[in-house]
Amino acid sequence: MKKNLLTRFIIIIVVTLLALTVIFWPGRKPTAQDFTAAGVNNILRQNINLGLDLRGGSELVMQVQVQDYLKRVTENVYNGVQQAAREQGYEIKEARPEINGDSYRVVVVVNDASKIQEMRDNLPRRVNDFSPNDWTSSASGNTITWEMTDRAKTDLGLRATQDALKIIDTRINALGVTEPTLQSHGSANSHQILLQMPGIDDPERIKALIVGESRLELMKVVGASNPSPITTYPTEEAAKASLGGTVPPNRRVLPYDERNEPTAAGGAPKQPGQPSSWVVVESPAVVDGGELRTAEAVSGNPAGGDDAYQINFTLKPTGAQKFGSWTAANVGAYMAVVLNDHVKSAPYIKQQITDTGQISGNFTKDSAGDLALTLRSGALPAKIVYLQERTVGPSLGADSIRAGVTASLVGLALVVLTMLVYYRWSGVNAVVALLLNTVLTLAALILFDAVLTLPGIAGIILGIGMAVDSNVLIFERIREELLSGKTVPSAIDVGFDRAFVTIIDTHVTTIVSSLFLFVFGTGPIRGFAVTLVLGLLANLFTAVYVSRTIFMWEMNHKQAKHGRVETLSI
């Protein structure tokens, strides 16, 4: 008996010390001040990951504009069909994408109507991402029409939202935002994303980074080659006029944003957003951002300076192979480095280039770093718009913690008083178990790096109530056994054994309900579920194991002092 009791006490002491070590890590000795509302508040803020409502920060609700994504898919199919037709020797009179509301079509008019069925069968096989299951085809006269199916629109929209989630997650984590919450929001068809950023009270830079475009393309400049200067045009209309007034499918007219530097005569630098010239480039791009492996911001000026940065990038093996073959065949030509439909630089090709390149321009250290980050994370599949923004100040978060902690301590004090008055000395047993339950719950929150929210504090309070309920079940069962004539040790054993089944039943059903809240709930609701489950698991240890150990010690102590135990203060 004594050996079993000693083992139990060692386990309880070890668990308690480990929990206190986790709470007060890295080794700071607890003081009396730590057990006040202000002290607990300070511990929570230092050691526990606090949610947006407690720490303060920003919350954004954004929406992926999947229509832009579906439009781009349609245009890619349109370009692919044209290229495949040329490669197969089919003569096309006219081809055009038709986008009208929620309808996405590709229309092809051919010269030879006898080739209609052959083209319907052959062209889709030679176009990337042109799945026959995603498009329905129809023919009328010498016209073929491919239309995107409703199922494809739904699937592609969901894919665009999930891709946006992954890219935003990469950008936010790389920026170092602590414990962000990023998840889908609303119904699946709403294509909304919720982002909560604790500790961020000025979200403007992050908002700009999230929606920042990073479409990188390496394209050939149409015109003269080295040593002749690059062919530029003063206006967009002049560039189009060089193409006969209409831009063909294999050409694009883009603004050329030269570096924002003073002129040789000492004039003022060009204002941003005002391209000084336009260039004509070949389409499609030789290599695009999908082939990018990494991008880093580096200083481009040996003398340093915050405005002397550029971005060096490297390509994946497949992109490097294509780029190397193209540059080898175009030595002396000008290559446009196009970022978000703007030519940032247009160097001429001195020799074959394989997997490295450079983007120069008017970059500061921060702007170059942010651009390199967006390039590394990849381009967003579609435009992002903000639907809602909410900012919680740190002082309001501190007030929420203070109110929650005060409510917890007041509730705990009232429960302790009730247990002591109603169950007398046995109430001390319940109080010890209750305090240990709270300590273990806080330690588990820190150990598992869980995020504590205001509803999470409510979960802790509810866990305290469940812990009290477990002790009440046990004590009332012991009382019934004593009234039936059983001895005190026998009543304690039977009371714990019979109450155990009921405790397990109530805890399991509550944990299952909490799991549903965690799986299907949003951030704050999930925080409530997490703290409640941790409190219930801790209670299974404290209400059953710890409380019974205390009763065992009490029986052992009284038997050693008085022999037979006749009464129990309960």
Rg from alpha-carbon coordinates: 35 Å
The number of E-state strands comes to: 19
Uncertain stretches of 5 or more adjacent residues: 259-273
The CATH superfamily of the largest domain is identified as Multidrug efflux transporter AcrB transmembrane domain
What CATH architecture of the largest domain would you give? Up-down Bundle
Number of domains: 3
What level of helicity do the residues show?
A: 40-55%
Class derived from helix and strand content:
alpha+beta
Strand order of the largest sheet: 7-8-2-18
Strand-helix topology:
Layout: H1 2-24, H2 37-47, E1 49-50, H3 52-55, E2 57-64, H4 66-88, E3 92-100, E4 103-110, H5 116-122, E5 135-140, E6 143-148, H6 150-175, E7 181-185, E8 192-198, H7 204-211, E9 216-220, H8 236-241, E10 251-256, E11 277-282, E12 287-288, E13 292-299, E14 309-315, H9 317-329, E15 335-339, E16 342-345, E17 356-363, H10 365-377, E18 384-392, H11 394-423, H12 425-447, E19 451-452, H13 454-483, H14 488-520, H15 523-562
Parallel strand pairs: 1-19
Antiparallel strand pairs: 2-8, 2-18, 3-4, 4-6, 5-6, 7-8, 9-12, 9-15, 10-11, 13-14, 14-17, 15-16
Helix pairs in contact: 1-12, 1-15, 2-11, 4-6, 11-12, 11-13, 12-13, 12-15, 13-14, 13-15, 14-15
